[in-house]
Design a protein that fits this description.
Organism (chains A, B): Microbacterium insulae
Largest interface: A-B, 51 and 51 residues
Protein name (chains A, B): Proline--tRNA ligase
Oligomer: homodimer
CATH class of the largest domain in chain A: Alpha Beta
Largest sheet of chain A: 9 strands, mixed
Subunit structure (chains A, B): Homodimer.
Radius of gyration of chain A: 31 Å
Shape of chain A: elongated
Catalytic activity (chains A, B): tRNA(Pro) + L-proline + ATP = L-prolyl-tRNA(Pro) + AMP + diphosphate
GO molecular function (chains A, B): proline-tRNA ligase activity
Number of helices of chain A: 14
């Protein structure tokens, strides 16, 4: 049935909403697609719902092609399964919790791993039942601290989440690949550029984890990529450690006075004034050829405080080249599930052996940092701090540093840690060249969960030999409402939205202009013919609205193909208007219909 | 794409679920349509989701035909709008409430009147924008005290709720009629018998309110209907008051001793032993021709306690013929929004003038019941207690009653009230004959809300004269998941479900039997051909499953048309099996495909 604007529930707005920070939010509200109901919670108006349904349709199609079956879990779930997995607690403030009238605990599910696992456990018991892939398209909830950017980070949002179940690792690889391929087809059909980046595989113990990122400036994720094809988000980037350097013949460590040098920069300035020029490469390849002291010659020791799941607080010191900083996201992943923060004044007071601004691993009387040292504080090194590299670092005495302090000879760490920031030009770990940094927005995630949930919740099946084996799972998510917002973010101009045909709320927007009944009759006929041939038609039949307003609305709403029926109607002429290119062309009505159908 | 049982996510169960009270629940779980997640909260498995989608498709179709546009509100909503309408409080324990991380109050919406009203207020402002009908299909939440009967009374359930917006009463009538017509078409397409009954129009002040009830023994609603076409739920039934009776010449009231007669039955026995036989019709038409005293000659005075919204408690006494009882549901509606219960011992202690078992409106020293009486307690009469009717009732003295107490002469009420139970044989109020009582299940409700929400939330538009007028609204609900359950309740036999074609999860179920590759090849071809012609095919391609198990599953799952490909496959013969009639017919494969397509 042709949708008539004279009756359709649509009101376009002239003003940008006051709370819109990003283009997609601004345009989706102005063009009548969504409306705010509460912070991070939106009402879907007819136009928005139509686009959402188109995106969901494409996803369903490709899930079916990938052999996945649709199910639907409740949004309101009891505490027990999440208690069993430990996530009732570990979600912290991030979820909505509630009681029912009997006082039983419930949550609004942010994801459904537990429920999928238990459902399959409930119904399946044999290797013959596997492989299985099931998915749902569902409204999910997260109690975001700062809901923002419209649909890009909401508190109620729609996701497609799929899970695969296999009893062998080879099976899981195949299931993973099938979903990964489906994701590529989905994003291709949506016309949405994507980069598949290696992602951290978290605590679940699975092997592969990849994110589909859409490269976009407003993206919250930073990722790195090389020309040779490497791509990873910064959390998953791994540092290529240089080879060890022989330290035969390097002189002994020398303590020197360094008044007023609590920062790396003041220390470097001091060294260049008071020390002899450095030899090349003494702090590894990064200082090759340096004729002056640089931050890269110094070893920075950053004191971090971890809070473990059981609530205990532990100090950890990270030693990294002075030209690097601790990257918060990489630290978060490196130390998960513990929470990380900078050490506080109180922490320093509790450890008087740490001389703030002059901390180092070594002293003349023995090691200062490390589990076996005077402080007993765990000391982790950046992978670049290989044996034989020589550093300027704190001497653990106020206003004194030490130089020619050689790793592996004068100090050792308790292990290595990947927390240093990644920079453009850093080498891709696969040898495919230097990386560049880019911003992206996560639009999908394929993830081998492995056996974590199956083990925790007891999902086992009998294998060919009648032996109980734990099932291995994959998790595959796509943010439906986020994708809609990104498509709006990408497809617009100063006059409004310009939808790709695959997700446009209507296929054709027919605009009748003028006061001539002939135009309205012809527009009516064109609309009916297009609709009859299977196209969705929005017909602007409003009788007393000026062409300017109608064209403005058409541009704002963003249906890609517009037919204007006006002045030439009596001669059977209409105008075809391509919303994206702006081109208009006068053609016969028969031609117009044929081309739109084609 | 043909759905293959060898991969499909389905596990039929041999045992009935322990908690299933009704057939639909039992079969939907056993046949793999739904699975319990929590009390009154279900997971939808692929088969169930397909049936649900078919029902939703029919509803969407007819909403579109009725000119309604689809929107979608959040399930998680802030308190404010519900505070404004007063429902945050009046919902009591019936809804799920929660806080977000900032402590703001939210609810899981049980209905969305407030949000629809505010959305239209937000976007529309002129009579030119109206009429408007918008709807959503949405998961709703009610914290039922006793979730039961599977999907029939759940805590999470899917509804279609539509609202119409008009600025004139005539407009509202047209919008109402359009939805009412759509409902008739929906239920016809679903093959679901319905009775449209007059319903109570509640507190909102609207004019029309009708329920679509499906007549079914497990139904929770009692309704009445006459052969002449009257139908109403018991809450909406109105008593036809007889005409007043002249009371000239009737003797004065006579107090008489009636020891040990605190109940109507003991009183009637006493009267028949000690009083002269009654004259005909003295207590109205109900006692015409009676030669003995009956309960219908007595006036029963029932003490009720109302709790008003502001928490105050008020006693009310209802005078009704002794052969009637107070119907709880009718009392609930009659006194809404106050809550009603029987008076407690404490209430009687607080009113020593009420002599329990011997309460009546009259005493020699003056009125005892009524706002102007000695007790000051409001006294409401059943409509049958018209002026001139003469009663035996309590004399307000222990073990004494009074007879020949004439309404309108010796006592009056503060008004009339419709709380007496309705009985088979009572007259339909429209004169269409005696009513019978039946049980039904509400499957839809069309309801003129009138201006309650628009007034409360400030939804006004400018009319043709530039005057602000309050919008009038209609509310139209259909329970999607409840309809699915009722269809399952109706369409089954001892072997399983038997879906109507309009909502069956698949159009055809193809079963390959035997070990002969020819059968599987032919079944494969038949499935592909049927699917290619637009039918949804479930193909049982399981290689090592016996025909018995396959047929049992087919019967349990309930796809109405089954094709068996087995023994005759080599000769191009298949069997067409009609699930409902049980008839099987051997036909050529070409014939089978042609007939299934037809």
């Amino acid at each position: 049935m042709v949708t008539r604007l004279s009756h359709f529930f649509l009101r376009t707005l002239r003003e940008d909403p006051a709370d819109a920070e990003v283009t997609s939010h601004r345009l989706l509200v102005r063009a009548g697609y969504i409306r705010r109901a509460a912070p991070g919670i939106f009402t879907w108006l007819p136009l928005g719902l139509r686009v959402k349904a188109k995106i969901e349709g494409i996803i369903r199609d490709e899930m079916t092609n990938a052999g996945a079956y649709e199910v639907h879990f409740p949004a309101l779930l009891p505490r027990e399964p999440y208690e069993q997995s430990g996530r009732w607690t570990s979600y912290g403030d991030g979820i909505f919790r509630l009681h029912d009238r009997k006082g039983a605990d419930y949550l609004l599910a942010p994801t459904h791993e537990e429920m999928f696992t238990l459902l399959v456990k409930d119904l399946y018991s044999s290797y013959k039942d596997l492989p299985l892939s099931i998915y749902q398209i569902q409204d999910k909830y997260r109690d975001e601290a700062r809901p923002r950017a419209g649909l890009l980070r909401g508190r109620e949002f729609t996701m497609k989440d799929a899970y695969s179940f296999d009893y062998t690792d080879e099976g899981q690889d195949a299931s993973y690949q099938a979903q990964r391929d489906a994701y590529e087809r989905i994003f291709q059909r949506l016309g949405l550029e994507y980069v598949i980046v290696a992602a951290d595989n978290g605590l679940m113990g699975g092997a592969r984890s990849e994110e589909f990122l859409h490269p976009i400036a407003v993206g919250e994720d930073t990722f790195v990529r090389s020309e040779g094809g490497y791509a990873a988000n910064v959390e998953a980037y791994t540092t290529t450690a240089p080879g060890a350097i022989p330290f035969d013949g390097i002189g002994a460590p020398v303590i020197f006075d360094s008044p007023d040098t609590p920062t790396i920069q003041t220390l470097v300035d001091h060294a260049n004034t008071h020390l002899a020029a450095p030899a090349s490469g003494i702090a590894g390849p990064a200082t090759d050829g340096a004729t002056e002291w640089t931050a890269a010659h110094t070893l920075k020791n950053v004191v971090l405080a971890l809070t473990h799941l059981d609530g205990t607080r532990e100090l950890v010191i990270v030693g990294l080249p002075g030209d690097r900083d601790v990257d918060d996201k990489r630290a978060e992943v490196a130390f998960a599930p513990a929470a990380v923060e900078a050490a506080t004044e109180q922490d320093f007071e509790n450890h008087p052996l740490l001389v703030k601004g002059y901390i180092g691993p070594w002293s003349e009387s023995g090691p200062v940092l490390g589990e076996e040292s005077a402080t007993g504080i765990r000391y982790l090194l950046d992978p670049r701090v290989v044996d034989g590299t020589a550093w300027i670092t704190g001497a653990n005495i106020d206003e004194k540093h030490v130089h020619t302090l050689v790793a592996g000879r004068d100090f050792t760490g308790d292990g290595f840690v990947e927390v240093a920031n990644v920079r453009a030009g850093d080498p891709a770990p696969d040898g495919s060249g230097p990386v560049e940094l880019a911003r992206g927005m996560e639009i999908g995630h394929v993830f081998q969960l492995g056996r974590f949930f199956a083990e925790t919740l007891g999902l086992k099946v009998l294998d060919e030999n009648g032996k109980l084996v734990t099932v291995t799972m994959g998790s595959y998510g796509i943010g439906v409402t986020r994708i809609l917002a990104i498509l709006a973010e990408l497809n617009n101009d100063e006059r409004g939205l310009v939808w790709p045909a695959s997700v446009a709320p209507f296929d054709v927007h027919v605009v009748a202009t003028g006061k001539d009944a002939v135009a309205f009759e012809l527009a009516e006929r064109v609309s009916a013919e297009l609709e009859a041939s299977g196209l969705d038609v929005l017909y602007d039949d409003r009788p007393k609205v000026s062409p300017g307003v109608k064209f403005g609305d058409a541009e704002l709403v963003g249906v890609p193909r517009i037919v204007i029926v006006g002045r030439g109607a009596a001669d059977g002429q209409v105008e075809l208007w391509d919303r994206r290119s702006g081109e208009r062309e006068v053609v016969s009505v028969e031609d117009a219909v044929a081309r739109l159908r084609g």
